[in-house]
Amino acid sequence: MRRNLDLTALRSFVAVADAGGVTRASGFLNLTQSAVSMQIKRLEEALDLQLLDRAGRGVGLTAAGGQMLGYARRMLALNDEAIARLTHQAYEGEIVLGVPSDIVYPAIPQVLKDFARGFPRMRVTLVSSYTRRLKGLFARGEADIILTTEDFCGPEGETLAELPLIWIGAPGGQAWKQRPLPLAFEHNCIFRAGVQEALDAAGISWVMAVESDSTRSIEASVSADMAVHALVEGAEPKYLERINHGGALPELARTKINMYTADPSHGPAVEALATIIREAMTAPRLAMAS
User: Fold this and answer.
1) pLDDT tens digits for 222-271?
2) Is the CB of residue 235 less than 8 Å from the CB of residue 285?
3) Torsion sign across C-alpha atoms 261, 264, 266, 268
4) Model pTM greater than 0.85?
5) Residue 137: inside a domain, yes or no?
C-alpha cells in the first residue's frame, strides 16, 4: 500500500532544520511549539524513521533526516511552483512571440508545448512574418519576444545560433540545373538579395520565377519543381530537400538567429519563454537541425 507524505509536516520539518530548533521554527510558521512537534512526530511515524537528533541542546538531523531534507525541499518547491503558476495573476495574460516563417519548424512547436505545460493560463500569440516586420513590431512594443535571421545582432539582442543558408528544391527535382536559374522568394525575404549577389558573383544567370507574400506559396512552387529557394540549414520542410548540386551552385552565406526580449518587467512568464527558446536553439547542432 502506498503512503503519502504530508506537505504540512514536511514544511515544519524543513523549518526546524533551517531554524535549528522547534521554538524558532514555530515562530516562522506561526504555529505553537506543540503543533510543530506533533507534525514532526507524525512525519517520523509515517516513515518509521527518526529524522531529528534531540540528544543535544539544539536539534540536529540524523542521517535519515539529512537525506529526507533534500527530498522535502524539492517537494515543497514543486508544490509552491505549481500553486503560483496556476493561480497567480502574474502567470495570466498574453505573450506575443514573433518568428520568421522559415524557422518556425521544427523547434518552435516544441517550445510552445513546453511553455504551455509550465504556464497553462498564459496565451502565446505566434506572429510568423519576415525579420524586418518583426523588428518593427518589437520596436513599437507590439511583441514581447522576437527571433530574427540577420547578418548582425543589435545591442539589445543575443545571438542564439549561426547557421549556413542552403539551397532547397523538390525531391529529385531538376529546376536547379536550369539556366537561367529559376528562383522563388517572398518579396520581403531577407535572404533574397544575398542569394542573388552570390549567383551574380558566380556568373550564374537567374530569373525570379515565383514571387509572393506567402511562405506557403513559395514552398508549393518549389515542391512542384518550378524553382529553387534558400533556407537556414535544418529548417527545410519535409516535402522539400537540400539540393546536392556538387558545386554547380555557389555556397551561400551564414546567418545569425537572434533573439530580442522585452524588458523583464513585462513579467516572469516572458523570461521563462525566452529561456525555453534559448535552450531549444542553442542545443548541440541546434534543435532545428535535428
Assistant:
1) 999 999 999 999 888 889 999 999 999 999 999 999 999 986 555 788 88
2) no
3) positive
4) no
5) yes
